[in-house]
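sry for the spam today, last one i promise. struct tokens for design, 296 residues
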């Protein structure tokens, strides 16, 4: 698979992630965000593991316990950290800090762990994309600033960055479907205790049932399968930066489906996120074409 294909797989995955907020808006009012996150992993993790087993791609060996465990913990931690951040700091601030911090943290982790400095295009694309996200959600005008919530949002960004790096390492010895299936099933097991603290009757309602199916099968199982496949051909830091398409998608769905309005500042933010994504995509394509010319 070419690097261009990897870029578009990650972008499509991020677009699916961007539907989560809209999907939750259609869930019953008694649906707690924490239990929604746990159910996403339960349905998505179970579906992923079943998919991998049916395809016969689950290898018993070459699963380093420490790395695999870190992957499961990081994905399990992301859900409560993110939703707690949103609850304490508000949707705007929590989302911006979590999504905006992930690319930077992924790049820094690559520097300190792998001694690998991201290329200059990553720095430009990341800064442009993060600037766009900040304008898109405009967090600094929020009155719900909460220091603990900000700390949890950064923890969510770190969790996603760690998951990305761990997945990249596991892909050296395992196929992408197996990596996603094992990590998500492990994360779902770690979040099982949450089910004892929240009511679940709302799942039997049509809106609740459809919401969980969408979040589990499409926004989790399919999205992370695509993301993991894209990681085969992309640096982890680039993949996390491309995931900034998530807030772009969320904003568009909010306008067209939830009838939210966009200010001029929000519109500029969307344009900047789009520019950051294009920068990574076009520069990669140009470099690939140059490589082909040299071979010819």
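last one done:
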């Amino acid at each position: 698979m070419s690097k261009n294909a990897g870029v578009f797989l990650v972008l499509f995955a991020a677009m699916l992630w961007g539907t989560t907020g809209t999907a939750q808006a259609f869930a019953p009012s008694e649906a707690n965000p924490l239990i929604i996150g746990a159910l996403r992993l339960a349905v998505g993790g179970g579906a992923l593991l079943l998919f991998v087993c049916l395809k016969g791609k689950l290898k018993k060996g070459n699963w380093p316990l420490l790395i695999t465990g870190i992957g499961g913990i990081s994905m399990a931690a992301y859900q409560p950290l993110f939703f707690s951040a949103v609850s304490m700091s508000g949707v705007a601030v929590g989302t911006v800090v979590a999504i905006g911090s992930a690319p930077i943290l992924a790049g820094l982790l690559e520097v300190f762990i792998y001694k690998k400095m991201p290329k200059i295009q990553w720095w430009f694309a990341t800064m442009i994309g993060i600037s766009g996200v900040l304008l898109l959600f405009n967090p600094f005008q929020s009155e719900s600033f909460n220091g603990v919530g900000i700390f949890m949002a950064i923890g969510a960004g770190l969790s996603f960055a760690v998951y990305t790096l761990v997945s990249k390492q596991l892909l050296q010895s395992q196929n992408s479907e197996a990596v996603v299936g094992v990590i998500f099933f492990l994360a779902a097991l770690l979040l099982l205790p949450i089910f004892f603290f929240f009511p679940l009757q709302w799942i039997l309602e049509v809106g609740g049932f459809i919401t969980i199916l969408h979040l589990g099968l499409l926004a989790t199982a399919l999205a992370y399968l695509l993301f993991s496949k894209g990681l085969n051909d992309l640096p982890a830091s680039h993949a996390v930066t491309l995931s900034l398409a998530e807030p772009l998608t969320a904003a568009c769905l909010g306008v067209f489906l939830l009838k939210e309005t966009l200010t001029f500042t929000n519109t500029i933010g969307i344009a900047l996120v789009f520019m950051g994504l294009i920068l990574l995509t076009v520069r990669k394509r140009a470099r690939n074409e140059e490589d082909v010319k040299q071979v010819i």
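The CA atoms of residues 106 and 161 lie 5 Å apart. ok im logging off now
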